[in-house]
Amino acid sequence: MLFSSLVFASTVAAHGAVTSYVIAGKKYPGYDAYNTANSQKVIQRPWPGYNPITSCADANLRCNGGRSAAENATVMPGDKVGAIWKQWTHSQGPIMVWMYKCAGAFSACDGSGAGWFKIDEAGFHGDSGVFLDAEKGSGWDIAKLVGGDKQWTSTIPASLAAGNYLIRHELIALHQANAPQFYPECAQITVGGSGTAEPDASYKAAIPGYCKQSDANIRVPINNHTMPQTYTVPGPPVWKGAAVAKRAQEFKV
What we know:
Number of strands: 10
Shape: globular
Strand content: 25-35%
């Protein structure tokens, strides 16, 4: 019994996951993999624990195995969406925030096909003397999440078409050379308003499918200080939404 308790404690102590959200100023609890309740009425799709996915080709890469959730949050284009990690332990790797437009009800939305697009990302921007594997003085934005109850906030793109969407927060931990660890979680949101904008195919990708295990920004020899100390975030470019045209004023003489 003592051994199993220690195993559980060590599992909970490692790595991390999104555990709650702040959406348009409203707080939403996330799924809790360590809650024994059979049904959790939350907006987040279930995830099995704090341990990582280690392959780009794993089907669970999409939503960490989550298939559905009981609730959804309502947002408008321009609203802020904050994801909170109750714990996170790694200082190297990218942050990515993706969305996927469902064709209809959330219950039938599995996130399949090349419909995922990024609305936010963060990577490495170290200056001279800061290496990719640095722990202190890290040039990685992901280091800001290390500790407890840290939040990453993104904006729903301007004029985004109304409908049901999955929003997916993904951290890729690169602290172990050539051994990436993926931490994705998905929540259900309904975008309101009268927007009609959607990204074109150049901004979209399938998950899994947006990366290969052999990619230079996935299989990273992070402790090699002789390589260029730069990093390109995986996947397509970030889509910021449609530009909102200013209505020309009419003047009468």
